[in-house]
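We include the entry.

. . .
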Amino acid sequence: MNTIKLRSMLEQFYIEDIGDQDVSSDFLFPEDMTGQLEITAKEDGIFCGMQVIQEGLHVMDPNIIVNMNVKDGDAIAKGDAVAIASGPVRSLLKSERVILNLIQRMSAIATETRAIVRKLEGTAARVCDTRKTVPGLRMLDKYAVRVGGGVNHRYGLYDAVMLKDNHIAFAGGSIEKAVETVRSALGHTIKIEVEIETMQQLKEAIAARADIIMFDNCTPETIKEWIGLVPNTVVTEASGNINSDNIRAYAEAGVDMISLGYLTHSVKALDLSANVSFITN
C-alpha cells in the first residue's frame, strides 16, 4: 500500500470522527494519563490491516508504542490478541473506532477471498476483485483481496479499458469498431477488455484482437463450449452470477480469471474488539 496515501486517508477519517475535539475523552481523562489498547479477535478468520493499526495510531500520536502479534495473511482464532498498544489514553480512545472499523472490513475481505481461493485449488483459474468497492476505501479493499490470495482487476477507469454493452452500442453495436477507435487513441501499455454474452460477440472480440475477453453472465457449460475458439494469447475471464457454490464449475470450464464483486460490496465485518485499560503510575 501507498503509506503516504494511507496516512492522508486516516487523517481525513479522524477529522470526520473527532471534529473539533473528543468531548468524552478530552473532558474526562488527564492529558498525561497513559493506558493500553488491546485488539482481540472475537471470531476465526484471516487478519488484514497491520499498517492500518500501526499508521493509524502513529498518525494520532507518534508517542504510542505498537506491538503486533500477527501479520497480514495470518489465520487468527477467537480470543487471539492481534495487537497491543500503549500510550496516552486520550489518543488511544480517539483512534480505536476508526482503526477497528477498517481492519474488521479488511479482515473480512481477506477471509472470504482465502475461502474462495481454496475452492479453486487444482485449477489454473485465479480469483480477482472488481470496482464494486466503497468509495474512498478502494486501496484498502483491493489490498485485502491480495492478502487473501486473490489478485486485483483494474483499480479504476484510468488503468485499463473495459468495453461493456453501452460502449459497444455507442459504436453502432460493433465490437471491432469500438476496439479500433479506443486502440487508436491509447498508448501501448493499456490493455483492452471486452464483455461478451453471445457467440457472435465472442467472434467479434477475437477478430478485434481484444487483450481480455470476459464471459459475462454465461453458464459454465456455455464457456466450456466456446472457450476453445479463444487464442491462447488472450486472457479469459468469467463474471456475473458466480458464488462460492458454483465457482469451481467456472474454473473447470477453463477461464483464466474469475471476478467476484461480492468480495468487496457485500462483505460482513469480521468481529474484532478493542479494549482500553488504564496504567497507573
